Amino acid sequence: MKILIRADWIVTPDIEAIKNGYVVVKDGRIDGYYKRKPEGNFQKELNLKGVLYPPFVNAHTHLELSSLSFSPDRFASFFDWLLWIIGKRQSFSIEEIEKAVIKGLKESEKHGVVYVGDISSFGVSKKFIKRGFSYLEVIGKDSDVISLPPPLSIHSVYSVSFKLIGEIAKDSQERGYRFQIHLGETADEENFVRCKKNRFETLIYPFLGRKRYERVCSKDLIDYIEKAGALNENMIAVHCTNLSRRELDTLMKSGCGIVLCPRSNIHLKTGFPDVEHLIGYEKVAIGTDGLSTNVSLSVVSEIRTIYYKLEGTIPVKKLFRLITSGGAKTLGIENYHQKPCFTFCKTEQKVEDPFDLFLSDSLTFEILDLWNLV
């Protein structure tokens, strides 16, 4: 089947904007983008009033926590929030978690998100996610890694033992998947790996009734991860808010994926990621985190936040890659450029620039999935 789509603007996965453009879908794959109407016979033609974008990617979410009511004003620090979420996680039933995932997916689609990189704390979201990945989150000291369904996610350096971090990283190479890890979200993580005083050991561990698993001391977080054997191209480091440029450079040289969650970091008072240093890296993406740390699951709101925080020094067009092809490369989404699925922004207003449109206060997105027409 051959389908022709025309739109006021079409943005390609290579971030080329075509005014009054066309895209051809043939036999379930994108066959090409055109500035003029291509010749040929088409079984179906669509004429869209608005902008057709590549499918949006939210590279780090916590959909199972979507039932929580989060307000940034409630927490003075990350550690106030952490104590709160520890208590909340223990109270959910499976039915409540399933409803939360469904709610989160509906909101994600409302904001134009097609692919998600979701962290599954309870092993529930996997059966609901059709596009993207559900990473089973691992917390603790010991686990029979090989018995767990991949892909896996290491929660953090302070909640997973040094030994287990290495085992999961090794397993990712043996079974062929990418794993996520919250890394450098707080300054206390650097103190933790340096064996200096930190609030995980003085506040969180006593609250949980446990002590540090091992006392492995390193010069910084990346050195700690490297010592554990986890620094490789399969690792996706999330947040990275408190990493030095030297540490970020090491991540990039190692081919790691990097996911930034700027609004979550602002809400929890943990800092702001060094977007200016990372913007040229091909495997850098955007995540919203979840509704346990954020007020919406809009990746567009994330890049708008970055744009205004940096006073427009990085154009929206450059930031746009973080929620499209950058997210796809970070998560390892195969054939992203060829799959006939799009994010469509419906608008009656005249659009002068399809990227500046993201600075508007209210946008209406739809998912255009042509698999249903193939």
Q: How would you characterize the overall build of this protein?
A:
By secondary structure, the protein is of the alpha/beta class. The chain is 29% helix and 24% strand. The chain has 12 helices and 14 strands. The strands form 2 sheets. Strands 5-6-7-8-9-10-11-12 form an 8-stranded parallel sheet, sandwiched between helices. A 6-stranded mixed sheet has the order 3-2-1-4-13-14, with no helix packed on it. Strand 2 and strand 3 (29-34) form a beta hairpin. It is elongated. The model has no long low-confidence stretch (mean pLDDT 96).
List keywords for this structure.
single chain; 374 residues; 29% helix
Summarize the structure.
This protein is α/β, with parallel strands linked by helices and 374 residues long. It contains 12 helices and 14 strands.
Give the helices and strands, then pairings.
Layout: E1 2-11, E2 17-26, E3 29-34, E4 44-53, E5 56-61, H1 78-89, H2 94-110, E6 113-120, E7 132-138, E8 152-154, H3 162-175, E9 179-183, H4 187-193, H5 199-208, H6 221-227, E10 235-239, H7 245-253, E11 257-260, H8 262-267, H9 275-278, E12 284-286, H10 299-309, H11 316-320, H12 325-331, E13 341-346, E14 364-369
Parallel strand pairs: 1-4, 5-6, 6-7, 7-8, 8-9, 9-10, 10-11, 11-12
Antiparallel strand pairs: 1-2, 2-3, 4-13, 13-14
Q: Which strand order spans the largest sheet, edge to edge or round the barrel? A: 5-6-7-8-9-10-11-12
Q: Tell me the radius of gyration.
A: 21 Å
Instruction: Report the total helices.
Output: 12
| Overall pLDDT | 96
**Which percent band covers the strand fraction?**
15-25%
The main β sheet shows up as: 8 strands, parallel
Shape: elongated
